[in-house]
Amino acid sequence: MSEETILEVKNLHVNFKTYAGQVKAIRDVSFSLEKGQTLAIVGESGSGKSVTTKTLMGLNAPNAEIPEGQLLYKGKDLLKNTEKEWQALRGNEISMIFQDPMTSLDPTMKIGKQIAEPLLKHNKGMSKKDALARALELMKQVGIPKAEEHINDYPHQWSGGMRQRAVIAIALAADPEILIADEPTTALDVTIQAQIMHMMAELQARIKSSIVFITHDLGVVAGFAHKVAVMYAGEIVEYGTVEEIFYNPQHPYTWGLLDSMPTVETDVDRLVSIPGTPPDLLNPPKGDAFAARNKYALDIDFEEEPPFFEVSPTHFAKTWLLDERAPKVDPSDNIKARWARWAKISGGAE
Ligand SMILES: Nc1ncnc2c1ncn2[C@@H]1O[C@H](COP(=O)(O)OP(=O)(O)OP(=O)(O)O)[C@@H](O)[C@H]1O
Ligand SMILES: [Mg+2]
């Protein structure tokens, strides 16, 4: 493959020291991000998505410890960065869009000025006038209507969807190599979510940044991501191209996520969520962390942690079901019905 890897995460572990003991939030996570591509990290609440992205920005909480791992970017391990080196990187080469636009905007500053600020910070010698002109361009790029008239507005004058577009414009201001979006649409209503996703997909095609996109909803990544990492209880349990994850998923947890995706046809009552709750990360269970919730669990799942089995050179899953001694199990009829529908629609997931 002619793909160029821009970021490689290798065997990352993140622990948090708490009064109750050590929370093992990220356990042996590895993935890579290719230039100009989008990697989606998908998992339920508490699976470690935000801790992973904060680690990529050098922004972990003070009680975090990283006993092991590497973050290789341009031949350097970012985990060895000093705070000064992180500051030079953040908002410049690596930018982040947070879940709630209100927390990332300054309510007392005009929006145009907030977009211009990172430009001035990272381009010594740029004039304020040029920075504002570029801010206007960025506002148009992220789909803010009549941008000229609104460049001097304050955040409270805008709707949630428009504010999130402003946050994206700020993140894009410095032409980052890597854009990290941590559930950028969950605070917005469904129609606005779809508009922002559409806008991001367009941007991705145009600006060629590499994107790490975090979500708990597998549905939003179809047609947007190139690769998908499915996270459960601090680990990646399945990793593959978007086609492999949607059409040939191997891990029962991925099946559960697929099952719980809404479709155009199904009404909300029929949504299946995965029964049970994730394990306690203070004392991760022996064996496969998903075993207690896995209706296909084998005896070995409660005893021994599964390795990653290679499904294809780009597709890996951490489940004993892929061991040659395991009984053959199929995903649910619900998922098969979904595949049949996708095949009919052809062109991807709904
Ligand atoms: N500073 C901290 N101290 C102790 N535990 C923490 C800290 N930050 C995160 N955790 C724990 O790490 C685990 C992973 O949290 P994380 O925020 O990454 O989840 P997430 O996948 O982003 O969930 P959500 O979808 O709700 O945003 C959780 O169990 C969380 O309680
Ligand atoms: Mg989170």
From TrEMBL:
Keyword Chloroplast applies: no
Coiled coil regions in record: none
Alphabetized InterPro entries for the sequence: AAA+_ATPase, ABC_Ni/Peptide_Import, ABC_transporter-like_ATP-bd, Oligopep_ABC_C, P-loop_NTPase
Bilayer disposition of the protein: Peripheral membrane protein
Native source organism of the sequence: Lactococcus allomyrinae
Protein name from the UniProt record: ABC transporter ATP-binding protein
Keywords recorded for this protein, A-Z: ATP-binding, Cell membrane, Membrane, Nucleotide-binding, Transport
Pfam families: ABC_tran, oligo_HPY
MF GO annotations: ATP binding; ATP hydrolysis activity
PROSITE patterns attached to this UniProt entry: ABC_TRANSPORTER_2
Subcellular location: Cell membrane
GO BP: peptide transport
Transport in keyword set: yes
Record domain ABC transporter: where: 7-258
Family label: Belongs to the ABC transporter superfamily.
Main location: membrane
GO cellular component, one term: plasma membrane
